[in-house]
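Q: What residues go here?
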């Protein structure tokens, strides 16, 4: 079954009054690997964000985190989701909305996160593993960051 979400976006009419610009059901989730699906809810190319237009931020082409000013994603990780260790050049605010998931770091450390937990992912190599029997729903807010440098050497993105 495909992940279905309701997306509501507000804006302004020609008189400056608050209005709902978009109220839709998103039911065409993107999948990058088995037991994984998600939606790009919104993205911006400007910082600070431009609120003087009615552009739909969902239309910004998906790409790696950190390639635009902000990204908002909702992802569902099914039980046994295929592993994908990666590093991104971004600071990621992570909110576990439903279920539970393990964050595995490149040194083997595993942190168990459950519904209501939050994580700030700061450009480290990591993997999301769902070892439970139920799907886990996660919200990600991604912002670009300067490349990590250790002893003067830039660490590259891996995904």
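A:
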């Amino acid at each position: 079954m495909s992940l279905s979400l309701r997306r509501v976006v507000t804006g302004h009419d020609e008189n400056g009054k608050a209005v709902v610009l978009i109220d839709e059901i998103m039911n065409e989730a993107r999948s990058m690997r088995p037991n994984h699906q998600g939606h790009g809810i919104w993205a911006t190319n400007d910082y600070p964000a431009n609120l003087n237009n009615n552009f739909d931020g969902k239309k910004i082409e998906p790409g790696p985190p950190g390639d635009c000013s902000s990204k908002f994603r909702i992802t569902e990780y099914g039980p046994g989701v295929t592993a994908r260790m990666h590093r991104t050049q971004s600071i990621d605010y992570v909110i576990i909305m439903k279920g539970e998931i393990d964050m595995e770091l490149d040194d083997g450390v595993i942190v168990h996160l459950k519904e209501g937990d939050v994580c700030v992912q700061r450009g480290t190599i990591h993997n999301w593993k769902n070892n439970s029997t139920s799907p886990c729903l996660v919200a990600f807010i991604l912002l670009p960051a300067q490349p990590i440098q250790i002893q003067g050497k830039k660490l590259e993105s891996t995904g």
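A: Context that may help when evaluating the design: The chain has one domain: 32-154. The mean pLDDT is 91.
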